[in-house]
Amino acid sequence: MGIGNRAVTDADDRLRGNNSINNVVAGTGVGDELKGYEGNDTLFGYAGNDTLDGGSDHDILMGGAGRDTLTGGTGSDIFRFVTANEGIDTITDFTSGTDKIEVVSPNFGNLSVGTLDLDRFLSTDATQTNANSVFLYDNGTGLLRFDRDGYGNAAPVQIASLIGNRNLNYSDIQIVAA
């Protein structure tokens, strides 16, 4: 069923976009299932443990609060995180060099807008040598964490887990303004 732009407001909804247009699909309940199909879709899970599937083409997926499962599908997709404390999302089909992880600057240490700087991306076996905000990634486990104060007192916060293809580079992370 073609739905255009729609939002759901109660628990455990299933909402699917049209097969040929660009949809904005949003859930606000608990445990929503959102699917975009064809078109350049934008899916917002908001609260709850949601399942978002962009389908084909170039999609933007934002799980929001909860432990969400995000699948971009074919095409270059953006997995957007507004804060580091939204919950740990599982990204099922990230493709390095094609897909992007996008974070909002003020909520991620006021990092410079654009592609993440190389010195702000560390593998988990690297040693943090300053108090800068950094992303920590483990290619073996697929765990992506954010550390807002480097070697300071705050512990890193896990924001995502990549399953399947676990390749991730600093250039796959984009910083955007609020």
Automatic annotation (TrEMBL):
Keyword Protein biosynthesis included in the entry's annotation: no
Source species taxonomy: Bacteria, Pseudomonadati, Pseudomonadota, Gammaproteobacteria, Candidatus Kentrum
Lineage: superkingdom: Bacteria
Signal sequence, renumbered to the chain: none
Gene3D superfamilies associated with the record: Serralysin-like metalloprotease, C-terminal
Residues annotated as transmembrane: none
Molecular-function annotations in GO: calcium ion binding
Record-given protein name: Hemolysin-type calcium-binding repeat-containing protein
GO cellular component: extracellular space
Annotated keywords: Calcium
Pfam family, one: HemolysinCabind
